[in-house]
Amino acid sequence: MSQPDSTSQHEGLRKIWFGISTAVITIVLFVAIVLVKPAMPDRIILLTGPEGSTYHHLGTQYAENLRRRGLNVEVTITAGALDNLRRLAPGENAVAFAPSTTDHWVDSGIDFSQLVALGSVGVEPLWLFFRSGIDIVRIPDLAGRNVATGGAGTVSDSLARTLIANNNLDDVEFQSFAGQPLDLLVEDIATGTVDAVFITGEARSPIAEALLDANGVSFLSFDRAEAYATLIPGVTELVVPEGIIDLVRNVPPQDAHLLSAASCLVAHKDLNHAVVPMILVAAETVERTQSVFSKTLTFPSSEHLPLPLAPAARRYFNQGETGLSKFLPYKITRYLNHLGYLVLPLLTGVVILLRIIPAGLRIWWGIRLKRLLLQLEAVEKENAAGTERSKLLADLDRIDRASATMSVPRSAVHDYINFRQFLHDMRERVET
Fold it and tell me: What Å distances lie between residue 120 and 96, 105, 293, 331, CA to CA?
């Protein structure tokens, strides 16, 4: 008996289904790879501080390191640490520099519960430079003086005002040097426009170097640094060994005591966790090359933090940098991550779905064939019982028409042929 035409019909449907499956998979791949962006960002925003500040100086070095590893960084100049914290927004891949003394700004209106720390990345020494020749030995000697700071929202301004307040000085006149060229700031001190200036930053930061090299400018060793560090949250004492800044000129001429906040990296808790290890590696690299205190202090660190440590940062401090990003450029790991976490699972789901539908159709075909077999079995029983021939032939014609229009899966051709043969044999028995 020749194979019924219904198998050719099924073969045509199978080819159509194959074309549909191919088109669906192609569309899914196109959407997942081309239109849907990988979860790992291709760029981050680095909120630093005023141009020429320590934060901005560090930020440019971090950006260069991260760009070499394949992550684009937009360095944003801001008004300072407080402005940085205000700019951190949910859903934005932004990282900001902030000090360990952020609790000084609890009344600023910032929702600190939404922020996390990535780690402390360096010391942030507070320097007090003053015009040589005037009698400034301790903080109380600033009474009645004209003092410059980095301006509202900066660490230097916050700590300077805290020190002044702790010494009950109410006649100090403050002014801001934000945005002022370094040479003009040095000139203001030398000419007496300002008597003293508070700055924060490493000894090799541009502003500290300019003031340390300036003629007629001295800096103060805080004689009660340990007491200030105990009284002011987030502040520690930092001892600057004799000659560590410049051995030839012996700067400082004896061990100096500074106050220091810790420079920290802060982000909104929604920051993508994949970029955190890269940022901390960049911080470690930059710290090794630019800090005169790196021999005694290790950064980045999970200590001296003003906010809870981000989970991704905690993993980094416990395990170090792990995964493919340790060996491959970020752009490659970004797309491998996208492939592993989105494209492959999505493609697998589509393939399973495309296989389930034909399987479901085969099951449905089997149910239909079983129903026809039951009807054929009923005809056989009626024939044995002597039912009228015309009725039996009418039933067989109805079963024949129903089975002839069925689309037969290739795997079920044998069962279908057996059914048709059984139908043919049944008809012969009824007719004879």
Answer: 12, 18, 14, 26
What pLDDT, on a 0 to 100 scale, did the predictor assign at position 37?
A: 62
Residue type, 179: G
3-state secondary structure 258-325: EEEEEEEEEEECCCCHHHHHHHHHHHHHHHHHHCCCCCCCCCCECCCCCCCECHHHHHHHHHCCCCHH
All domains of the chain in start order, with CATH: 5-33+341-431 (no CATH), 43-326 (3.40.190.290)
Q: pTM of this prediction? A: 0.64
Question: How do 43-47 and 146-149 pair as beta strands?
Answer: unpaired
Return d(Cα 245, Cα 193) in angstroms, integer.
Answer: 27
Tens digit of pLDDT for each residue in 337-378? 656 565 666 667 667 766 776 777 778 878 888 888 888 888
Closest CA to 97 of 106, 105, 89, 88: 88
**Phi, psi (degrees; rounded to nearest 5) at 126:** -95, 120
Q: Nearest 5°: CA angle at 60, between 335 and 121?
A: 85
Q: Which residues in the chain come in under a pLDDT of 70?
A: 1-18, 21, 25, 28-40, 287-297, 323-328, 332, 334-347, 349-350, 353-354, 357
* C-alpha gyration radius of the chain: 39
Please name the residues in contact with 359: beta carbons below 8 A apart, sequence gap of 6 or more. Answer: none
Q: What residues pair up with 95 in beta bridges, in sequence order?
A: 46, 267
- Of 139, 97, 148, give the one whose Cα is nearest residue 121: 97
3-state helix, strand, coil split of the chain in percent (to 5) is 50, 15, 30
Residue-wise pLDDT tens digits, 256-284: 899 998 889 999 999 988 889 989 988 88
